[in-house]
Write a structure and sequence with these properties.
heterodimer; A: mainly alpha; Cytochrome C Oxidase, Chain A; 15 helices; B: 8 helices; 12 strands; elongated; binds protoporphyrin IX containing FE; binds copper (II) ion
C-alpha cells in the first residue's frame, strides 16, 4: 500500500529475528505484550473451545439419529445443547475474528507497532481465560441446562444445574470483549500511519471498528442482565420470576438487547475478512468502497434496534411487533448491498482459486442463504410458525457457521503465511473447504425443512416422522466434523514442516504484506507513509513471493 | 464397518419414503401463511441462484491467466449501487406490508369465539373448557368454529404450538396470553411445547382433535362434567370467603363484583384501569397492586392458596356476574 511495488529484502525465516523467535520459553508467551503473540494465545484458546463445543454438537447429532434418542437421557441432551451454545457463542465466535485476526492485523494494517494499550490487551486475554475456566468448571461440575439464552424464570428459579458458574464465566469474558473493543477503537483513531485517512483504511478495519463499538455499547448490558439473574437466583430478589414479583419477559428484552447486536459482533468481522479476500484474489479494488464501509456502520447501529424480533410470540403487542419487523427488514438491506458489491468486485478481475478464496466464495453462498432465510423470520406471519423450531437453528447456523466460521477459516488461511511464516498444503486446504461446504449444507439444509414441518428445537426426542431429515442432518454433521479436523491437522503440520513463506505469497496489497513473514516484533522498521487508496491493485505490479 | 452398513441400510429405507415437504394445513390461516412462505422461498432461491451463477460466470470468464496479470480498474458506478440498494428496499417493503397485514388479521380473533383455557405446567398441558370439562395433553375442538385460548403457566415459560394450524404463542407465568384459530379439517394434529422449559420439554406433547360439530357435542356431553367452570368458580368463591366481603348489593366490606368485568376502575394511585382478565387475576393474587380509591386495602392476598386453574374458575364466576359490554362470558 505504501509503495507501488511490493519490495521486501528477502531474508529466509529462521536467520532473521521475528516476533516468534525473538524470545523463547513459556514465560515469554504468558507475559508478552506483543499484539501478535497475544493473537496466538487467543487462537490456541478459542481453537480448544471450538473443538469442545464441536464435540458436544457431534454428540447431539448422534443422539438425534433415533426419534427416541440414541445416546443420552433428555437431561443430558439439554446440557449438551446448552454448553454447546454457550461455548460456541461466547467463547468461540464472539472472540474469534476480533481477538485473533483483529489483534494480529489491526496494528499491522494501519502501520502501527502495537495496539494503543498492549498491557490491557494481555489482560483481556487473561480475563477471557478466567471466564472460560469458570464455564468449563460448570461443565465438569455437572453442566447447565438452561439453553445459552438463560431464559427466566427457568434459569433463576427452576434449574438445578450450575447456572451461576456458567453465567459468571460469561459475565467475566464480557469484560475481555469490552477491553478489546476499547483498545481497537483508540488504536484505530489514534495510531494510523501518516497518510492513512479513514477512507484509505482496509475494510477489515472498518468492520473491526464497527464491531468494537458494539462490544463497548452492548456487552455491559449482558453483564448487567447476568448480574440481575445472579441476584435473583442466589439472593431471591424478585426481578424476573413472577412468583416473587418479577417479570420474566424483562429478561428477554435485556438479553436480546445485547445478543442481537452480538449476532453482528459475530458476522461483521467476517464481512471485513471477506472484503480483504475477494479483493486480493481478484486483484481489484473493492467495488463501492464507501457503500461497503458505511453498510458496516449501518448494520452496527440498526442492530441495536431489532431485539424484539426474537419475541414476536411472547405476547408482545402487535404494534411493537410491527416496528421490530420493519427494523429487521432494514438490517437486511445493508447486508444485501455487501453481497452485491463483493460479487461485482469479481467483475473483470483476475480471479484465482487459492484456498482462502474458496472459503470466501463458500461464505457468499452460505451467508446469502442465511440472510435470505432471515426474511422469513422478520416477516411476522411466517415467524409465528417458524419461531422456536429447527428453522431457527438452521438460519443461525447458516449465518454463524456458514458465514462467520467460513470467513474465519478463510482469514486464517489467508494470513497463515504471515502469522507463521509457513505455507500449508494448498491442495488439502481446498479439499477441506469443499468438504466443509458440502458437510455444512447436508447438516443444516434439512433443518430448514424440519422447522417448516414443525419440529421444535431443543428436543431430545421427537416424533418419528421427522427421522429421515434428522438422519440426513446427522450424516452431514459427521462430514462437517471431518472437514473441521483436516485444517487443524495440516495447519499444525505446516508450522513445522511447511515450506517457508515469502513476505507476500498472494501478491496482496495492504501494509501487513510489506513486512517480512513472520513480522519482526516491532512490525515495521520504519513507520510507513501511505500515499494510495486501499486495494489499489490497478496501479502496481504484483509481486508474489 | 457392519455398523456403517446397518446405518446405510436404515438410511436408505427411510429415504425412499420420500420426506414430506409441507406440513398439514388445517386452519383458516394456514394457506395464507404458506403462500407467503412459498414466495419467500422463491425469493431466496432466486437470489441465491442469481448470485451463484453470476459468481460462477465471473469465475470462469475472469479466471487468472497469467501470474502477473493486472486487471483494469472498474469505475465506481453510483446508479448501479443505488439500484441494488433500492431494489432490496422495495422487496423488503413489499414483504413487510404483506407479512404484517397477514399477521394483523391472523392475530385478531373474531368476536364470537369459543373460549378455552390452557395452563402449562412442567411438563403437561391442562385444558379447561367453560362447560367444565378438563383434559390433559389433549384438546378437543369443533371444526369450523373460531376458538380462542386464554393461557397461562404455573411455573416457567412454555409455548403452545400447533404446526398444522401455523399458530404459536408463549405461555407465560404471571400473565395471560391468548391465541386463536379456526380448524378447517377434521383430524388429529400435533401439539408441541416450543419454548424450552426443562428436563421433559421434548415430551410436553399433546394432540389436538378436530371434530365435526356433531361429534364435538357428543364428546362434550359424554364427558359428563358435573359442573361448569362458573359453578366450580362460585363454589370456590364461597369456600374461600370471598363472598363475605364481596356481597352483590355492595353492602360488604369489599366492592360488589356485579358488572365488574369491562368496567373502568380508578386506583388509589389515580391511575384508571380497564378491568380485564389480567386485572382480576392481579386483584386476587396481589390485591395491593390494584387497591381501589374508595376502599380500605383489606383484601388478603390469595397467592399460594389458589392455583392458576382456580384463578381461572374464580374469574369465570366473576365474569358471569355481568359485564359492561358483554354479559356473562360473552354468551
Ligand atoms: C461456531 C460454530 C457454531 C455455533 C456458534 C453454534 C451455535 C449454536 C447455538 C447458539 C445453538 C443453540 C443452543 C441452544 O439452543 O441453547 C446451537 C444448537 C445446536 N447446534 Fe450449533 N453452533 C455451531 C456449530 C455447530 C456444528 C458444527 C453443529 C453440527 C455438527 C452444530 C449443531 C447444533 C445442534 C444439533 C444444536 C441443537 C439444536 C437444538 O436442539 O435446538 N452446531 N448451536
Ligand atoms: Cu436478533
Ligand atoms: Cu417446553
Amino acid at each position: 500500500m505504501s509503495t507501488a511495488t511490493i519490495d521486501v529484502h528477502e531474508v529466509p525465516t529462521g536467520s532473521r529475528v521475528n516476533y516468534l523467535n525473538a524470545q523463547y520459553g513459556v514465560k515469554s508467551w504468558l507475559l508478552t505484550t506483543d499484539h501478535k503473540r497475544i493473537a496466538l494465545l487467543y487462537l490456541a484458546s478459542i481453537t480448544l473451545m471450538f473443538f469442545v463445543g464441536g464435540f458436544f454438537a457431534v454428540l447431539m447429532r448422534l443422539h438425534l439419529i433415533e426419534p427416541q434418542g440414541a445416546l443420552v437421557q433428555p437431561e443430558t441432551y439439554n446440557k449438551l445443547f446448552t454448553m454447546h451454545g454457550v461455548i460456541m457463542v461466547f467463547f468461540f465466535l464472539v472472540p474469534s475474528i476480533p481477538a485473533t485476526l483483529g489483534n494480529f492485523l489491526v496494528p499491522m494494517m494501519i502501520g502501527a507497532r502495537d495496539l494503543a494499550f498492549p498491557k490491557l490487551n494481555l489482560l483481556s486475554w487473561y480475563i477471557y481465560v478466567i471466564g472460560a475456566i469458570f464455564t468449563l468448571y460448570a461443565v465438569i461440575s455437572g453442566g447447565v441446562d438452561t439453553g445459552w439464552t438463560f431464559y427466566t424464570p427457568y434459569s433463576s428459579s427452576f434449574s438445578h444445574t450450575s447456572v451461576v458458574p456458567t453465567a459468571l464465566g460469561v459475565f467475566i469474558t464480557g469484560f475481555s470483549s469490552i477491553l478489546t473493543g476499547l483498545n481497537f477503537v483508540v488504536t484505530i483513531h489514534k495510531m494510523r500511519a501518516p497518510g492513512l485517512t479513514w477512507f484509505r483504511l482496509p475494510l477489515f478495519i472498518w468492520a473491526i471498528y464497527a464491531t468494537s463499538i458494539i462490544f463497548i455499547l452492548g456487552t455491559p448490558v449482558i453483564a448487567i442482565t447476568l448480574f440481575l439473574l445472579f441476584l435473583e437466583r442466589v439472593l431471591h430478589i424478585g426481578i424476573f420470576d413472577p412468583a416473587i414479583g418479577g417479570d420474566p419477559i424483562l429478561f428477554q428484552h435485556l438479553f436480546w438487547f445485547y445478543s442481537h447486536p452480538a449476532v453482528y459482533i459475530m458476522i461483521l468481522p467476517g464481512m471485513g475478512v471477506m472484503s480483504e479476500l475477494i479483493t486480493c484474489f481478484s486483484r481489484k479494488r473493492i467495488f463501492g468502497y464507501s457503500f461497503v464501509a458505511f453498510s458496516s456502520l449501518a448494520i452496527a447501529i440498526i442492530s441495536f434496534l431489532v431485539w424484539g424480533h426474537h419475541m414476536f410470540v411472547t405476547g408482545q403487542s402487535i404494534y411493537a411487533g410491527l416496528i421490530f419487523s420493519v427494523l429487521s427488514f432494514m438490517v437486511a438491506i445493508p447486508s444485501a448491498v455487501k453481497v452485491f458489491n463483493w460479487t461485482a468486485t469479481l467483475y473483470k478481475g483476475s480471479i484465482s482459486y487459492d484456498a482462502p478464496m474458496l472459503y470466501a466464495l463458500g461464505f457468499i453462498g452460505l451467508f446469502t442463504m442465511g440472510g435470505l432465510t432471515g426474511l422469513f423470520l422478520a416477516s411476522l406471519a411466517t415467524d409465528v410458525h417458524l419461531n422456536g423450531t429447527y428453522f431457527i437453528v438452521a438460519h443461525f447456523h447458516y449465518i454463524m457457521v456458514g458465514g462467520a466460521v467460513m470467513a474465519y477459516l478463510g482469514g486464517i488461511h489467508f494470513w497463515w503465511p504471515k502469522i507463521t511464516g509457513r505455507l500449508y498444503p494448498d491442495g488439502w486446504a481446498r479439499f477441506a473447504a469443499l468438504v466443509i461446504f458440502v458437510g455444512f449444507n447436508l447438516t443444516f439444509f434439512p433443518q430448514f425443512m424440519l422447522g417448516y414441518l414443525g419440529m421444535p428445537r431443543r428436543y431430545a426426542v421427537y416424533p418419528s416422522e421427522f427421522q429421515v431429515l434428522n438422519v440426513m442432518s446427522s450424516a452431514g454433521a459427521s462430514i462437517l466434523g471431518i472437514g473441521y479436523l483436516i485444517p487443524l491437522i495440516y495447519l499444525i503440520w505446516s508450522m513445522r514442516y511447511g515450506p517457508t513463506a515469502g513476505p507476500n505469497p498472494w501478491g496482496a496489497k495492504g501494509l501487513e504484506w510489506t513486512t517480512p513473514s513472520p513480522p519482526p516484533t516491532e512490525n515495521f522498521e520504519e513507520i510507513p507513509v501511505v500515499t494510495e487508496e486501499a486495494y489499489d491493485y490497478a496501479h502496481s505490479t504484483v509481486i508474489r513471493g | 464397518m457392519r455398523g456403517l452398513l446397518q446405518f446405510g441400510s436404515v438410511f436408505f429405507s427411510l429415504a425412499i419414503q420420500a420426506p414430506q415437504l409441507r406440513p398439514e394445513a388445517a386452519s383458516s390461516i394456514a394457506e395464507g401463511v404458506d403462500h407467503l412462505y412459498f414466495v419467500l422461498t422463491f425469493i431466496t432461491l432466486f437470489f441465491t441462484i442469481a448470485i451463484f451463477s453470476t459468481i460462477f460466470v465471473f469465475m470462469v470468464k475472469y479466471r487468472r491467466r497469467a501470474d502477473n496479470e493486472i486487471p483494469v480498474e472498474t469505475e465506481e458506478n453510483l446508479p448501479l449501487e443505488l439500484a441494488w440498494t433500492i431494489l432490496p428496499t422495495l422487496i423488503c417493503a413489499g414483504l413487510f406490508l404483506w407479512a404484517s397485514s397477514l399477521y394483523f388479521e391472523n392475530s385478531r380473533p373474531p368476536s364470537a369465539s369459543t373460549e378455552i383455557f390452557v395452563i402449562g405446567k412442567q411438563w403437561m398441558w391442562h385444558i379447561q373448557h367453560p362447560e367444565g370439562l378438563r383434559e390433559i395433553n389433549e384438546l378437543h375442538v369443533p371444526v369450523g368454529v373460531p376458538v380462542e385460548l386464554t393461557m397461562t403457566s404455573e411455573d416457567v415459560i412454555h409455548d403452545f404450538y400447533i404446526p398444522a394450524f401455523r399458530v404459536k404463542k408463549d405461555v407465560v407465568p404471571g400473565r395471560y396470553t391468548s391465541l386463536w384459530f379456526q380448524a378447517t379439517k377434521v383430524g388429529t394434529y400435533h401439539l408441541f411445547c416450543a419454548q424450552y422449559c426443562g428436563a421433559d420439554h421434548a415430551e410436553m406433547l399433546g394432540w389436538v382433535y378436530v371434530m365435526s360439530p356433531a361429534d364435538y357435542e357428543t364428546w362434550l356431553s359424554s364427558g359428563t362434567p358435573s359442573q361448569t367452570m362458573v359453578q366450580i368458580g362460585e363454589k370456590t368463591f364461597n369456600k374461600l370467603g370471598c363472598a363475605s366481603c364481596h356481597v352483590s348489593e355492595g353492602s360488604g366490606r369489599g366492592p360488589s363484583l356485579v358488572g365488574l368485568y369491562g368496567k373502568e376502575e380508578e386506583l388509589k394511585t389515580g391511575e384508571k384501569r380497564l378491568v380485564d382478565e389480567a386485572f382480576i387475576r392481579q386483584a386476587i393474587l396481589n390485591p395491593n397492586s390494584v387497591a381501589l380509591k374508595n376502599y380500605p386495602p383489606i383484601m388478603p392476598t390469595f397467592r399460594g392458596q389458589v392455583d392458576e386453574e382456580q384463578v381461572l374458575q374464580l374469574m369465570a364466576y366473576v365474569k358471569s356476574l355481568g359485564s359492561e359490554e358483554r354479559d356473562s362470558n360473552g354468551k
